Amino acid sequence: MGRRGNEDSPIPEAATEAVNATLANIDNVRSQLNKLVSISVVDDDDDVLAQMGPLARAQSLLFLARTISHSSPVN
Length: 75
Known about the structure:
Layout: H1 13-40, H2 48-51, H3 54-69
């Protein structure tokens, strides 16, 4: 029950799917953190977000919030 595919595997398919979803989310976090870090090290000023336009600042903060809250991947 709860298994499809390889019946010889002791690992339920739901567990495999959960691991694959977690790996996809980790890749998404890596991508979003790379974006956030790249904008924050553009210059030596500590307040890079304050220098951004409202839309870019909102997008950066949204990436950070999604990363921290473990929400759905950004599409």
